[in-house]
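TA notes. Do not distribute before section.
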Amino acid sequence: MADRIFISVFALLLAAPLLQMATRFIPEPYIEELRRPNSVPEPLARLVAMDAHLADDINGWFNDRFVFRSVLIRLKNEVDYQLFRTSEKSISDGTAGYSIKTLSAIFWKIKRTPPAINPFWKP
């Protein structure tokens, strides 16, 4: 009996994200992105033709529709702002991330922290 309960719970945990992706049963907040979501045009024809870029397109499609993606993006931005006091974005390649200026400022601050706080400090 315990085995059936375990298998049922495991199957439910595996199926829950797929059901959320398909039905959007739990509403997610909208985020405005300045790009078009990825799509997979004619997947069966491309599969038959053995298109080399089909896997990349499917990965992009899945990444844009990942369960609670907007919540995770907002959480990541909030953590970045609270920890690093920055909200800079590098959008040159279409993705958000740290600029070199931000990373060097973080590194410089860590490197110059006194040894009582930072055990790796070297003058």
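Switch to the second chain here.
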Amino acid sequence: MGLALADDALAAGETDAARSHLETANSHLALAYSGWVEGRLLRQEGAYDEAAARLEAAIEADAGGSAALLERARALNRAGDPLGALKSYEAFRAAGGRSPRGLVEEAQIRLDRRDDTGALANLEALSAFEPDHPSAYVLKAEVLYRQGREEEALAEVKTALKLSPKLSSGRLPEGVKRLHPGVLTGLGSLTLISDRTKGLALLRGAVEDDDAPPEAHFMLGKALVGRKRTRKEGRKALARYLALAPQGPHAKEAAKLSRRRR
């Protein structure tokens, strides 16, 4: 508003009035930009509610551009307001903002809310302009595991592991809060081939989760039962698999392995 008044005054030849309006406008802009910077600072310091309020004021003053919307989304998410965060992420994208991490964060919220369709839309958008982002494949695999589409999920895990070998150590890719037990199972089964220690660690991590798929128990049991030192743990894992999936695809093999003596 101040800039428009300054421009009108200048067009009318009223230079003093133009300068006065310009100084007022600069003062408001400086205050708004200060709020944008302060909001970012507060978010990094962990004061999420205050950060969201400062960023809201900056957005209303049109300071910070679409980046302010992204920062507000992150602040609201950490403040425990996922719905507010989603609206801000959506506004950020509607304003033309592009952020791989932002899409991962938005997808993560949708997954937490069991909105698989919305999460997949975010992840497809991510893959469209950054096809080698491992987080997209890790989170797609989570959706597919939850839907019982294990083979498709494993294919996504293979791609993620190829793009980010550090996943074999349980390292979280950018923006991902945790590895779904199905993803851990896939990573474990693939990693066992080249690194038994890392593969077992991933499978053990999977079976500790209450939502672990039966496959995790079978893969862990199969890997352990053949060695005397770990046979007891292996049989326990196989028994758990049979309890969860008595008619499962590995039931006969699990029963046979459970009786194995050496």
